Amino acid sequence: MSIKSKLSVLVQLANIDGEFAGEEKDLIYMIGKANGVSEDQINDMVDNPEPLPPLSTMTEDDRFEYLFHLVQLMKIDSQVYLSEIKFCEELAERIGFKRSVISELSSRIYSDPAIASDVSSLKRAVKKYKN
């Protein structure tokens, strides 16, 4: 799955509150830069987000990364809105998980991306929530 597709979903979440700014924006640009996506390309995604790719093309690691980055982005500004939670839960369900996976990940992913989460432990935990 392409990094642009992943970033596009993050942009959609960041725009839920009607504002693409602050820590959420910084995290998206940081992820993009680390994966060779230019600022101009990300700006284009803000205006024209890509749809979620078909579930059949997503690996288990792709699905986990989606969830991990979504929850991290949701928490990064220390303000979690109900609309963001619902978006994450709906996306989790669309990619083959129970909605409650978001609550599990949210309790184990830190709002500060500098604080590392135990990714292997998170991957094991997520498996329990597969539909």
UniProtKB/TrEMBL annotation:
InterPro entries: TerB-like. Gene3D superfamilies: TerB-like. It comes from the Bacteria. This is Tellurite resistance protein TerB. The lineage of its organism: Bacteria, Pseudomonadati, Bacteroidota, Cytophagia, Cytophagales.
